[in-house]
Amino acid sequence: MHPARRLAAVALAVLAAMSTLLAGCSHREVLQPAVEVTIGQQLIDLKRARDSGALNASEYDKQKQRLISSIR
Q1: Domain ranges in the chain?
Q2: What DSSP assignment string belongs to the chain?
Q3: Over the range 5-27, which residues count as b (16 or more CB within 10 Å of their CB) and which as e?
Q4: pTM recorded for the entire structure
Q5: Within 13 Å and on the Cβ side, how many CA atoms surround 26?
C-alpha cells in the first residue's frame, strides 16, 4: 500500500475510534464541587484581596457588607 494511503487509512481509523469514545462524553450537566466556605473564610479572602491590591477599599467595604448581610 502507498504510504500516503496507509497514513490516510490510519488517520480515518483513529478518527473513528475517537468519535466513538467522545460519543459517551455528551454529558451536558455541569457538576459543581461540594465545597462549603464559611463566611469567616470569605472575609479572610476579601481582606487578602484588599491587602494584595486586587480590591480597593471601597470594593472591599461593599463586598464585606454583602457577606455580612447575607447571614442575617
Answers
A1: 35-72
A2: --HHHHHHHHHHHHHHHHHHHHHTT---PPPPP-----HHHHHHHHHHHHHHTSS-HHHHHHHHHHHHHHT-
A3: eeeeeeeeeeeeeeeeeeeeeee
A4: 0.50
A5: 4
C-alpha cell read off for 18: 475517537
User: How does pLDDT run across 33-49, given as a tens digit for each residue?
Assistant: 777 888 888 999 999 99
At 18, is the pLDDT very low, low, confident or very high (cuts 50, 70, 90)? Answer: low
Return the number of other C-beta atoms located less than 10 Å from residue 70's C-beta: 9
Count of all residues that appear for the chain in the document: 72
